[in-house]
Fold this sequence. Notes:
The chain is α/β, with parallel strands linked by helices. It has helices at 15-27, 72-82, 98-105, 134-139, 162-178, and strands at 3-6, 84-89, 115-117, 128-131, 143-147, 158-159. It folds into two domains: 3-13 and 68-186, HAD superfamily/HAD-like (Rossmann fold), CATH 3.40.50; 15-64, no CATH class.
Amino acid sequence: xxxxxxxxxxxxxxxxxxxxxxxxxxxxxxxxxxxxxxxxxxxxxxxxxxxxxxxxxxxxxxxxxxxxxxxxxxxxxxxxxxxxxxxxxxxxxxxxxxxxxxxxxxxxxxxxxxxxxxxxxxxxxxxxxxxxxxxxxxxxxxxxxxxxxxxxxxxxxxxxxxxxxxxxxxxxxxxxxxxxxxxxxxxx
Length: 188
Ligand SMILES: [Mg+2]
């Protein structure tokens, strides 16, 4: 059994869909998820909007509209059959605890023990980190799944689906537990 830290936005919560919907409505644009091919969303917004695009995620209200990605809950439940899973998410002060409520509402968690807020995820101790931000997977001390999204397209070794993420974790953990392979060989 491995201890798995799972990110929220971009892995199980489709924040960008609602974020772009609100931005497109207010700034008369047609920005799509697949257009956002790097982490800094403001670079894809209209120049007159720029960094104002981040104001949308400085309000807790946006999570009333954010939906889970299709298949996300089934993926987490499958992981929980063999591993201990908790969620780790960055936050702004205006959103303290909001994603805990969201995860609870959408049945990803049942208890506060399954939830951690941390901007610096390299401080988290777990066997795995599943995240869509390369900066987080790059600096994590354990094994990682970089979950494929348009904004991390330039990085190698992404998992393209929940099925692929599940098989990567299952394969590595099997080899470690039953074949005795050294963890270091499978770090990334
Ligand atoms: Mg994320």
